[in-house]
Amino acid sequence: MFLVFIAQIIFSFSRTLNTRYVSKDKIKLVLITGFVVKCTWLLNTYLGVTAIIESDYKIIIAYLVGGILGDYISLKINIK
Question: I need a labelling partner for 59 at 20 to 30 A (CA). Which of 3, 36, 53, 65 fits?
């Protein structure tokens, strides 16, 4: 459950940050965060689908809360 929570925070954080970097034309940072997004997406997809198939509600809740927290943290970062 902890792995899902942390992985989802990292995924949502990097995905939201990636979008913000795209809007600022920061190509190097777009590529770095894009790589992180793709790696964590693969892990989160596997863990999330497995949790749904197994009806593991603790993991599903960790997945959702981690995603919200990752987005929130990413939006708090000041990008110049």
Answer: 36
Examine residue 66 and state whether it is found in any structural domain, yes or no: yes
Hunting for tokens 């949502």 — which residue is that? 12
Domain count within the chain: 1
CA-closest candidate to residue 14, choices 47, 43, 55: 43
Domain of 34, in residue numbers: 2-75
Classify each residue of 59-74 as buried b or exposed e, where b means 16 or more C-beta atoms within 10 Å of its C-beta. Answer: bbebbeebbeebbeeb
> Is pTM beyond 0.85 here?
yes
Which burial class, exposed, middle or buried, applies to 27 when counting CB atoms under 10 A from its CB (0-12, 13-18, 19+)? exposed
